[in-house]
Amino acid sequence: xxxxxxxxxxxxxxxxxxxxxxxxxxxxxxxxxxxxxxxxxxxxxxxxxxxxxxxxxxxxxxxxxxxxxxxxxxxxxxxxxxxxxxxxxxxxxxxxxxxxxxxxxxxxxxxxxxxxxxxxxxxxxxxxxxxxxxxxxxxxxxxxxxxxxxxxxxxxxxxxxxxxxxxxxxxxxxxxxxxxxxxxxxxxxxxxxxxxxxxxxxxxxxxxxxxxxxxxxxxxxxxxxxxxxxxxxxxxxxxxxxxxxxxxxxxxxxxxxxxxxxxxxxxxxxxxxxxxxxxxxxxxxxxxxxxxxxxxxxxxxxxxxxxxxxxxxxxxxxxxxxxxxxxxxxxxxxxxxxxxxxxxxxxxxxxxxxxxxxxxxxxxxxxxxxxxxxxxxxxxxxxxxxxxxxxxxxxxxxxxxxxxxxxxxxxxxxxxxxxxxxxxxxxxxxxxxxxxxxxxxxxxxxxxxxxxxxxxxxxxxxxxxxxxxxxxxxxxxxxxxxxxxxxxxxxxxxxxxxxxxxxxxxxxxxxxxxxxxxxxxxxxxxxxxxxxxxxxxxxxxxxxxxxxxxxxxxxxxxxxxxxxxxxxxxxxxxxxxxxxxxxxxxxxxxxxxxxxxxxxxxxxxxxxxxxxxxxxxxxxxxxxxxxxxxxxxxxxxxxxxxx
Length: 643
Known about the structure:
alpha+beta, D-Amino Acid Oxidase, Chain A, domain 2, 6-stranded mixed β-sheet
């Protein structure tokens, strides 16, 4: 060997022995294994509230009646559920490795190794080396025949040869040994190279556990254990959002082209270093907000989250445009000649302070000293209405949402174990004028704003909770119909006041943690209505403007013009998260997770004492008996990263 990466924690497991051991353990605990039993249909029905649920499966040996089915069908994971109107972002590909002839000096005690430059691995099998890798041009498959479960393909050496060349360079002796056998089979891959797990958000009783990206032997048993707890206890022990099927929106799951692009890139980059600000090049511009063109014109370097484009930071004197995916120059696609966006990303691919660190710092300082404009349009925006909307809000949210019209409350939504499934703002609203931001409905309603990266997860959690309680409440998603501009900083009120007749200085009319529908003067002849929330994610004086799609560009231009003399500038999410962290605020999925309770996360103030809500018993117990872990924030006095 000339050198490669060795991980001391790596081990070897015989796949046949492992499967046998798991099978025996299952049977010993009451499980039943039925072989040669093909499933042709999942039978579903509807309950009295119109919610779909599992009733059984049709097999070649008869009907099995059950209310719980796990989709663990690997590359066939899409096939059986698509007739139900359910889609998964799962792409079959050919994946291969070769086994060398017996080699002198090779024994079972030698370590597995990887080489990230050549994107290959060596695994010891007896006195032979198994070698495989992740090429830039894998063979993509549309479907895999249902009877191909033990089938193998002939190895395409024109694709696999790149791995052989790399293997010979790091282990010249490998090049002298012959190839004893080739193994090329169908494998399932996903857009982020992570499994698809958890409850289906459309059909109750259907769970997913597929898309293991050639890591089934490593992850299978542990994921199965967590899924079993998910089914029995409604939650796994661990924070599983990275594997949760609800990390993808319905729009993403249905878009096969998007899933294919992203899965290809994830496959090709499997051995690439994952830097803190790594961005995908595939599947971009999938969903853009109304401000997208203006963001680009003002120098935004875009990021992608949950299928949405959002500004990471702004270049003062340049524009960089995300290009269509070029598939690394394969499949007859030419390589992109405009690489400005990729070059901007590469400058920040480091574990130290990135090249644009000071520029992002300027955006943050401007927010603290003057004012900035954040485009938060990809945030989740929901209306909760219906005859039992109040009962739903009382049960879902920890805070007291029984407030007068115009109040806005920061709150958590918990699972049955008291873990935080979402942290959101809830604005109490009444029936309005029929506009997108001010809809007409009966009774009292709630306008809910949540983080964009977990938008569908938040919505699904709310819907599942409402369905479980059989409440007559409706969740309406307005995320794509409303843009959001957040003007933050000491001068934000002064700037916003220039385009509205509403007296923003009247603390009784629009105090902190409140909302109102205001009219904004775009020009002397035209005004538009928006919903304004007096909230801040950065700990400064500020306002969120929730704007109907058709008025977004006009409001943006009016604000930038009004704030020119006050130094108003655009700022991106890199500055936003830095500012938020400085204030000790939370970002769900990162420093706040589904296995953290509000008490552990310093969010006990969001939990009301009166009334009941999901997870309250756990919260009350911790408040009385104490906790074993606690989220804390530290301020570092020195710059600890060597630039």
